[in-house]
Write a structure and sequence with these properties.
binds magnesium ion; about 325 residues; single chain; alpha/beta; binds threonylcarbamoyladenylate
């Protein structure tokens, strides 16, 4: 079920089966992006609505032009600097991409994951891999093979084990509207790093109920236990009668009486916090608690994506 056998993964994928794949961001539920049966299986296993398009994964920058046309200069510049890496490019699709992948949109989301196992896999396949995060629709993304197994294990042929994800947040998604860069999802590549390279971009990551891109929906990435975000001391005071789980950034909040506590990064390091976020949310979700109390992290660099996920986790 969980293993490191790339050959086995290749055989399954070539036969139209699904395999969970490791990436530096989160684990993906991978299938042949050019095979409609495989794509349909992905939607089914994830319980994902057909209006939510899938990202395709390729091995190299050279392959971008196989699946996209009219690629802007800025996209190549970004690709040259950041790919393979936690950035997804939203580009005009070429005819070989089935419209099931893009939910009917003319644009396709493409990314080049930076993980040695998946790099090797993509090198050996002669098709791109469609891979949404390997979690049931709306739940927290998986950052270990065990996370995948615990929820989708029964419906999957194989989970390729690449260890815990290095970055731990989904890729940043960027597209181009009238020549300007637009961020549709804040993620594992900081907006600041993108702006240093191509100048000011627009950030549309907070639009609410746009059904063409449900990853942007207000409620997403959510644990089952309710979660509130704010000042931990105040929130703890307001919810004294409940069994509490604390999700803190740096502080241990020794003075707060809670059933359980997690600290994202004792040193206040945003990369470490990003890497721990989803695993800690999942761990809290398994405890016998009534409410998760969390706090915002500094709104800069990866902190912007962490706060975005916290915000969506609270929306019900
Ligand atoms: O880091 C990642 O991007 C991970 C790993 C596995 O690669 N994948 C991932 O996929 O997060 P998923 O499906 O969970 O999130 C992709 C988001 C969705 O919110 C989807 O709506 C949006 O990207 N998306 C995909 N294709 C799109 C398109 N053609 N136009 C607009 N949004 C698109
Ligand atoms: Mg997802």
């Amino acid at each position: 079920m969980i293993g490191k056998n790339i050959e086995k993964a290749i055989q399954l994928l070539e036969a139209g089966k699904l395999v969970a794949i490791p990436t530096e961001t989160v684990y993906g539920l991978g299938g042949n992006a050019l095979n409609e049966d495989a794509i349909l299986k992905i939607f089914k296993v994830k319980n994902r609505p057909f209006f939510d398009p899938l990202i395709i994964h390729v091995g190299s920058v050279e392959q971008l032009s196989q699946y996209a046309i009219n690629i802007p200069e800025e996209a190549y510049l970004l690709a040259k600097h950041f790919l393979p890496g936690p950035l997804t490019l939203l580009l005009h699709k070429s005819d070989v991409i089935p419209s099931l992948i893009t939910a009917g949109s003319e644009r396709v989301a493409i990314r080049i994951p930076n993980h040695p196992i998946t790099q090797e896999l993509l090198k050996q396949l002669d098709f791109p891999l469609a891979a949404p995060s390997a979690n049931p629709f709306g739940y927290i993304s998986p950052t270990t093979p065990q996370h995948v197994a615990s929820q989708l294990g029964g419906q999957l042929e194989y989970i390729l084990d690449g260890g815990p994800c290095n970055i731990g947040l989904e890729s940043t998604i960027i597209g181009f509207e009238k020549g300007q860069g637009v961020i549709y999802r804040k993620g594992g590549l900081a907006v600041e790093a993108i702006e240093d390279l191509i100048g000011k971009v627009a950030v549309k990551a907070h639009s609410t109920s746009n059904p063409s891109s449900p990853g942007l929906l207000k409620s997403h990435y959510a644990p089952t236990v309710p979660i509130v975000v704010g000042n931990i001391l105040e929130l703890a005071g307001q919810n004294k009668n409940q069994r509490l789980g604390i999700l803190a950034f740096q502080d241990t909040y020794a003075e707060v009486d809670a059933t359980t506590k997690r600290v994202l990064s004792p040193n206040g390091d945003l990369s470490e916090a990003a890497k721990n976020l989803f695993a800690m949310m999942r761990a809290l979700d398994k405890e016998s608690i009534d409410l998760i109390i969390a706090e915002w992290v500094p709104e800069k660099g990866l902190g912007r994506a962490i706060n975005d996920r916290l915000k969506r986790a609270t929306a019900k």
